[in-house]
TrEMBL record:
Alphabetized GO MF terms: alanyl aminopeptidase activity; metallopeptidase activity; zinc ion binding
Record protein name field: Aminopeptidase N
Domain Peptidase M1 alanyl aminopeptidase C-terminal: 538-858
EC main group: hydrolase
Record's keyword terms, sorted: Aminopeptidase, Hydrolase, Metal-binding, Metalloprotease, Protease, Zinc
CDD domains listed in its UniProt record: M1_APN
Record organism: Altericroceibacterium indicum
Domain Peptidase M1 membrane alanine aminopeptidase: 224-434
Substrates-to-products reaction catalysed: Release of an N-terminal amino acid, Xaa-|-Yaa- from a peptide, amide or arylamide. Xaa is preferably Ala, but may be most amino acids including Pro (slow action). When a terminal hydrophobic residue is followed by a prolyl residue, the two may be released as an intact Xaa-Pro dipeptide
Family indicated by similarity: Belongs to the peptidase M1 family.
Cross-referenced Pfam families: DUF3458 (PF11940), DUF3458_C (PF17432), Peptidase_M1 (PF01433), Peptidase_M1_N (PF17900)
GO BP terms: proteolysis
Amino acid sequence: PQLILRSDYKPFPWLLPDVSLDFKLSLEKTRVSSRLEVQRNPNAVPSPVLELNGDGITPLEVLIDGEVVNSWVLEDDKLLISLSGEAHAVEVVTEINPSTNSQLMGLYASNGMLCTQCEAEGFRRITFFPDRPDVLSTYSVRMSGDSVQFPVLLANGNCVASGRHQDGTHWAEWHDPWPKPSYLFALVAGDLVARKDQFTTMSGKNVELAIWVREGDLERTEHAMESLKRAMKWDEEAFGREYDLDLFNVVAVSDFNMGAMENKGLNIFNTKYVLAEPDTATDGDYDAIEGVIGHEYFHNWSGNRITCRDWFQLSLKEGFTVLRDQLFSQDMGSAPVKRIEDVRVLRSIQFPEDSGPLAHPIRPDSFREISNFYTSTIYNKGAEVIRMMRTMAGEERFRKGTDLYFDRHDGEAATCEDFVQSIEDGAGLDLTQFRLWYSQAGTPKVTVRQEQDGTTTRLHLTQSVPPTPGQMDKKPMPIPLALALFDRQTEEHRGEELIVLNEAEQSFEFSDYDAAPIISLNRGFSSPISIERNVPREDLVFLAARDDDPFARYEAMQDLVVSHLVSALRGVLSDADRADGQEAILKAFSAILEDSALDDLMRGELLILPSPAYLSEQLETSNPQAIHEERERLKAWLGTQCAGQFEALHQRASGGAYSRDAAARGLRKLKAQALIYLAAGCPEKAAKMAAAQYHSADNMTDRQSALIALAGLDVPEREEVLDAFYKRYQGDALAIDKWFSIQAQSLHPKAIEHVKALAKHPDFTLKNPNRVRSLYMAFAANPHAFHAADGEGYRMIADCILALDPINPQTAARFVPPLGRWRRIEPGRAALMRAELERIADAKQLSRDTFEQVSRSLG
Ligand code: B3K
Ligand code: ZN
């Protein structure tokens, strides 16, 4: 497959101001007739040929200005039509089979309904079109189909007409007044019911809201609807953005490759991010729904009104929209906890991506398959980069920048550069050097040395950006660091400051400190970097107990644990050191357990140990099972030492009535943490507590945390509760997904055998992405099972990729990165991982998606 370069961008030679589509819908055979009004693009190099993308379709008929013509050729899936004049009407008829579309791109069938997914390049599987984001058109859509099978017919924009035919079919016409690229096209036809509501915008316009689901699911849509209304209000207040159609539809489908899709006026969602009630959804699920509903809604401005010029600019809409959804969730709940959660995701997913063979800048320079670039780097690092601009500008000036961006580029297909320029002009920042964050991959490493000279404190900082594929030499980037200096006497600091490290080496001076202060650095995670710094243990214990920045407090706790575990893993920990390290962690732990000023959500957060993925980032190469064992050993020790406290905590947290308020959620989080530590330290006691918690639970959060603890233990309660869960939720796909993933991710020594057996379970299928992920993604994230020394785990993931690739390449390719980590793993396992990648590479007829990921991983 061809490598596509950012530098090759050229505007499309034709403009397509208006597009009409007509769909004769049926599950097996849908006929699509398109009519494209084309005119020469005055801002492009002229071409005598209109080049339309297609993928797996053939034209049944081509008409120019109403006449059937033969002046076209089909070349490598592209339809090339010769055009002589300045403007023409081009019509093309195609036929597609939604029921065999297992890739879930284009128009496909899911549970008897028809729906679309077009981003990034799915529209070309429906009809021939310049399927690129810089071709903007207004769409008129007419569809007709069986009125029993498809009583509901939806598309983008507003429904302008509908009616019935004599033969039992019906039809509807939709018109979207806002010009959009083809990837935002959507159509849904099915037997659906809606929760309806309304929203009045800031200028007083009324918007009809509807969330469409299958009949039995209606009750589970309340939270999504409330989240949607909150998101609409928030975007008006926080960014001045008002909704721009009379209608906003959301549809939930159970077969979906990703989380959700922001199609104009017709968002399509994975059921996982819509449906929730206390019995089936955890607190985490509720949060995720709010976040994703917000995210897709916010795309209406950051993505739809202003879209991307080309797919290399993907982070323009995704990074910015992730930042917007993060800020929204911060405002709706606990801001510090949300920030910690976001950093945890960044460090356990994006950091490993940035240090591996798939590392790429947030604005990549090349790709073969764009689906492979919907990555944590584009999304999460993209958000962090914009967050740094916000930190440097301050909230108010940043808002001036985003206002200018929305103003300047409304209705356009823009670039990342357009965004940076708008922030620069609107916020009054100089971002010349900062632009490097868009072009350089890799997580910068900052080293810190603190020096005390009389009453002057000096911080000597160095930065380096590690080499990544295709980028051996990097330049220093601006790194904004929020910091506070704690006076050792008063245990207070004199206020937070922001310093910006611009150079490879730079020193900063602070005066009037009698003794070396304790430094709280990168507060709020102001920069997405890793820091190397020798901080005395007592200082970390102090910060973990006392820092007034909640993130910094969490960070101190993480540092304390990371430095201990990393020394243990490097084999440089004497027995005495180990004892000292454990005592220091215990001291910090106890302070957190006892601190009455802490809310329980935050307390629960502070008790979470650094993830195995983050720990392995700290080592050049690692043995994942050794990491797992050291981490478990510490957990068991803490579980034993604090057994009494954890039991008391669990007791205190049990028994209250279910509520979704922060206090009740905090208690559920504490119960989960208590069980995790007790399961490691006192398994028998934990098993009894977990079983009791499971049976008395009145919500999914408590059931799930009990099940997670039990799934890892070799106790009689394990089978009993797993069976009870299965029976209770049989037929409820989202709950059964949890049942699969809890077992696949369990700490049980036989997890690998469990996964093998689950793959043969009648409820398992490779056709449903949620189900595949619930078994195999969970398994690939299970350090002790996936990294079994004999390579069995690697083999299973490779087998999954090979079996899934012909069915759903986009999802198959997402299983490659865990194997691609081989260079950072000890040599024995690395060889086994590599061998599996080579086995995949040798397979005949690999998809472009999987081919690209495997070849980059072998690199
Ligand atoms: N924009 C979609 C991504 C769909 C990608 C499909 N390959 C979801 C989102 O980020 O909102
Ligand atoms: Zn998005």
